[in-house]
Specification:
The complex is a heterodimer of chains A (440) and B (188). Chain A is α+β, with helices and mostly antiparallel strands and 440 residues long. Chain A has helices at residues 7-13, 30-38, 145-149, 179-183, 196-203, 228-233, 283-288, 397-404; strands at residues 15-17, 21-22, 83-84, 94-97, 115-117, 130-135, 141-144, 154-161, 186-195, 211-216, 223-227, 236-241, 244-245, 255-257, 270-276, 291-292, 298-300, 308-313, 324-333, 339-345, 353-354, 356-357, 367-375, 380-388, 426-429, 435-438. In chain A, a hairpin with a 6-residue loop joins strand 10 (211-216) and strand 11 (223-227). Chains A and B meet through strand 6, strand 7, helix 5, strand 10 and strand 15 of A and strand 1, helix 5 and strand 4 of B.
Chain lengths: 440, 188
Amino acid sequence: MARFVKTGELNRIEQVAGNGLLHRRALLGRGIAFAGALGTGVGLRVTKAAAEPLAEAPWGQEPGDPVPAYQTPSKFAKNVVRSLSNPNFEPRTSQSRAPHQLLDGMITPNGLFFTIVHDGVPEIDPSVHRLLIHGLVKRPLIFSYEALLRYPMTSRIAFIECGGNSAGLFSPQPLQTDVQGLHGLVSCAEWTGVKLSTLLDETGIDPKAKWFVAEGADAAHVMRSVPLAKALDDAVIVLYQNGEPLMPGNGYPMRLLLPGYEGNMNIKYVRRIKLLREAAFSYWEAQVYTEPLPSGKAYQFYFVNEVKSFITKPSPGLSLQQPGLYEISGLAYSGKGRISKVLVSADGGQSWGEAALQGPVLSMAFTRFRMPWQWNGGPAVLQSRAWDEDGNAQPTRAEFVAARGELPSVPPLLAFENHHYNGVTSWAIDQKGQVKHAYP
Amino acid sequence: MRIHRILVLSVLWTFSFGAGAALAQGVNLGKPITQADLAPWDIDIEPSGAGLPAGSGTSDQGASIFADNCAACHGDGGKGAATTTSGAPAAPPVVSDVKRNGIDDTTLTIANYWPYATTLFDYIRRAMPWTSPRTLTDDQVYALTAYILAQNKLIDAKQVINAQTLPKAQMPNRDGFTPRFPERMPPG
């Protein structure tokens, strides 16, 4: 067993970066056994008490419950829920954030997939809903939900991230909240639907068209302008989310998927696609998801969620109990392709070791990374940094702030005072094992 | 010979499946619709003014419509309401002389930031009032647009706003933007 690891031997054989980061092969089991075989020393200060004697529990001595038609999580997992920004449904946008610190793998379950709605969650009757494609096309056409179900389907796993996710990192002081609070406005699912290009084959395209707008059927009627090239490349009219019909908060009965493009552009409840010569400059692209810069200019048509990662475990709220071997785990993703590499640091970025990437590593999807770490009980600052196959590196927070600025004062936790933060997040661990958000 | 065969096939398809068979490659379950029939959904407005409907309004007309339909969330005269009880941001002010402060989104206003006035008409008509969107008449939307532009001193208080005048409203920050990834923008 790998209970005892001698620090000196780790340095020589398994340690790949400072403050206890081990080579990722330690995750293969073989590596842990290897390290353990070496261990004869004093790595752990905790003496293991023997386990309690075993007994039969009540659920092993009587029948369980009848099987429900649609199952929901165990009552013992009831804390694994989204956090709500607008629980009393005041007249404003509602956000719910995914509890990534309590999840693992690369797929966000449908009940926990983040949701933002700007005028409530609509209850749309799919037999009434219509998708209109018009504008600079040869034949405007209307598609019913039932008709779309008849089309050839395509599936892909893709993340969707709100342009405002991680906006708390613009604060000049680290906001003390958890992964969910900082990074909960991103999720990843398998999406199944009809390629938009298939439908555009049927409407025909006027060669003058260069953009399209997509618009939702809900009360907010959110509309975004998208380059037509994206429609012909990989846009999908999605009908299924992780194999079942879309959740109401995620666009039932149909939504637009623009892989890698900011969440708001992936129009939910999509009812209209119109091909245009110029962009429409809707409120959402003319103001909300622009990016004011320190120079006084602003980015607009940001489109892409750039390469990013964050550690989900350990993280605030998940404190360490005693020194020993831990797995550092987190999520990495890029709107520009596959994740090519994730580095992890346990000493605030002074040294880095390469994390194991959990397969499959897919383009524009969550990639789970894992890194073995021997916590020696001392202070540590955990960071992750991702690279994508397009050659883009996730910036450190200092690099990001140097280019994009920082807010003049600490914003409220739920505010979005700027967008598109993709820099590094740091978790500081103290000698008690408590984890806090930090700017080292 | 080849053309002849295609013609025969095409005729057969047309006999079998009707008009949809013109595109025999696809599933072809889309139903044609006329411009007149799709018009009620055709609500996007472009900076050129394309899409703007008939009708007009003035700031004076807009003032009372604003008081009745908008002030509850956006405050008297559009100057913003108190923060909500939960501490979350309330509906933003729509009339403001705040100067932009660096990268702080909360200091971006219609007057100091929005590139086009057409966006205002488009957004009011599609999404406002929050409790009953798509219920205002086009004249009411023109009047509210005129009111907000005039209160922000972006147009003369007497200016009639309609499909011809709205695209001409000059927005000070029109040239304040740059695309993040120029290579992803459609060619000029």
